[in-house]
Amino acid sequence: MWSNESRFQLHHADGRVRIWQKLHESMHPTCMSTALQAGGGSVMVGGMFSWHDLGPLIRVEQHLNSTTYLSMVADQVHPIMLMAYPNGDGFFQQDNVPCHSARIVQEWFQEHEGDFTLLR
InterPro entries given for it (predicted)? Predict the structure, then answer.
């Protein structure tokens, strides 16, 4: 299984607005656009998949730090790995962002190393 998290912008927020207008249309209402404060918001989700299975899409409600990530691993990843690989022969891969490589997360994986193998 492989996992990752991603943040999605709810509205286009690169700061660039492109409008095609003719000279006499410069202040016409159809040539104006509204602006959203603070970019309009975003949503962060985490998920996991493998060749054989697809895990649930998990909405990350808080800032993603080592504690939040550890909760995701313990509550979501671990049960799915046990279900998908009941013999303990599964491999789990994550990237090395700081919250994944935090000491409390690595200690949790060491405590559960018989359930599946964490790829470095």
Answer: RNaseH_sf
Q: pLDDT, tens digit, for every residue of 14-53?
A: 666 666 677 777 666 766 666 666 666 788 999 999 887 8
Nearest to 75 by CA among 89, 87, 61, 88: 61
- 40: CATH: 3.30.420.10
pTM of the model: 0.72
